[in-house]
Amino acid sequence: MSDAIETHQTELRHFAPSSEFVARANVSDSSLHDAGDADSETYWAGQARELLHWDTEWSKVLDWDPPNAKWFVDGTLNVTYNCLDRHIESGHGSQVAFFWEGEPGDERAITYSQLLEDVSRCANALKELGVQRGDRVAIYMGMVPELTVAMLACARIGAAHSVVFGGFSSDSLRGRINDAEAKIVITCDGAWRRGGVVALKDIVDEALLDTPTIEKCIVLRRTDHGNEMTDGRDIWWHDLVDRQSPECIPEPMDAEQLLFILYTSGTTAKPKGIMHTTGGYLTGVTSTFRSIFDIHPDEDVYWCTADCGWVTGHSYIVYGPLANRATSVLYEGTPDYPDKDRFWAIVEKYAVTILYTAPTAIRTFMKWGVEYPGAHDLTSLRLLGSVGEPINPEAWIWYHDVIGGSKTPIVDTWWQTETGAVMISPLPGLTTLKPGSATFAMPGIGVDVVGDDGRHVGIPGGGYLVLTKPWPSMLRGVWGDPERFQETYWSRFPGLYFAGDGARYDDEGYMWLLGRVDDVMLVSGHNISTAEVESALVDHHAVAEAAVVGVHDPTTGQAISAFVVLKNDHEPSKALEKELRIHVGNLIGAIARPKSILFTDDLPKTRSGKIMRRLLRNVADDETLGDTTTLADPGVVARIKDRYLSVDAEDDEVDDLEENQK
Ligand code: WT7
User: Fold this and answer.
1) 12, 343, 593, 624: which has the fewest Cβ within 10 Å?
2) Phi, psi of 649 (to 5 degrees)
């Protein structure tokens, strides 16, 4: 049991690690923190050497020419050798890498040996198609084992993958393929979703109508619902991959070889292709996975419920766990199919010991009720994790008590697509927890909270979250746009990485994350840019102008609220509202569909024409309006507010869960 110091306010409760947990924890003293504080470069070099196999040792740990970093200069290694071959060589080939659970209930246990053979076959297939080191391969699949195989196959031969989440639209997929100039796309005929089929290949076909760089499309048969194969372009996975040799030599790659591009939303309509490279990224995810998730590879069964389409899946389903020789669960479907206890049935079935999920999912489970987890034996769980957005203390306590049986530590991990690996988190055998606080910086990571002047705010104090030192898994830039890289992350505070999040220190120096401070919304823990949704809305022929804000939502953290000005010849209607939501879904993906749309005849703007989203947020959150003196027409907000209050926000739970779990 945790030694909770009971008080009436959950925020003030402290949870020290139990002596039982401490006794077997990978990290139970401050030596890692001390080493990281003493000299972060030496610390990271130590981690890289201790945890990974290098074919050539680096000549220099860090080459830092702000904002451009090179880690482990001249070092070479192969990511998949570290994730697969070396475990087999040390006698663990028959250990399960993935217990895969298909949504319809089919299952596969894939050992490290099998995974290596599958990866090698797929790598050979890519080579046969002419894929070379440095080429980009787009991957658009459901959560099937072949998705991880495809990612690792790219890594084996030095091609960069660009995984596009299967919930994104054909337009989004096309944009990402074209931005990265991908040569190959790998997909599935369809994906299972709540007993139905999402026709992924049809979406790909539409995307490929205008993707000049794509030469081939590899299609895995999963749902068998029948689809057109385009001659000369489309190839079945089973025709191409299965006949390949199961051996493919893991060639050493330069530490700075591009490992992947992953797109994330920023403050403009165009997503940013975040670049991660080989040696530093693998060092970051391997080291953090070991210390945060306290992995004991011979005993633990770990399950991260994210999708590989997000960075969480890259770092903590694929690379971090495999490099640590973990046994993981991989699940294809949603948490409510066939019933709302599916997650707990999976925990029980595989005796999951470590579970990593998102606050939005936890709040959904709270809403569904304790009877669902209550129907299953969850006593195997010994550690829980949270990621994606701040976890409110109430959800933290529920997760701890109902899922964790009041005995499991919770690691609340703060990080971003850009950081590659976790930057702020408790270490479960060391850190005394406070529900809702992500606690402290990871060893070797420099974190601070600064004011507008870029100076440390003091303790207690609130301001902007920054990273003060380069770190191995840091993004190496925005694909094709070095100015945007500099501008977005490195120009606000000279010499500091600006994360875009607000944060505060409490009086004990614990860190509390406060959400985004820029025009990025966090819906179910995922970045969506206001600009991207606005541009999708104005793309519709009836729309003259649109403004979008993220408003507080009890389940998804933030929900998208849109304010739309129609063109003269169009009238507001429920039908049009629905049409607009579908339109946004078609252009970006279901996750970006506004939850509410309010038609208005004007938007609040400054005299220079800038939309004041803060005021719209206040309207939608029903707060006092604050200062409206800089508005060109101060009456406009009052009119919008009147109208907003007279409309019942329609509460159809649009595929709530689809957004939740991904
Ligand atoms: C943004 C990054 C990291 C993988 C999933 C999201 C928010 C993430 C936490 C947390 C408070 C969090 C931040 C961050 N965020 N984890 N534990 N506590 N906020 O990756 O899509 O790149 O989003 O998610 O606002 O900036 P992403």
Assistant:
1) 624
2) -60, 125
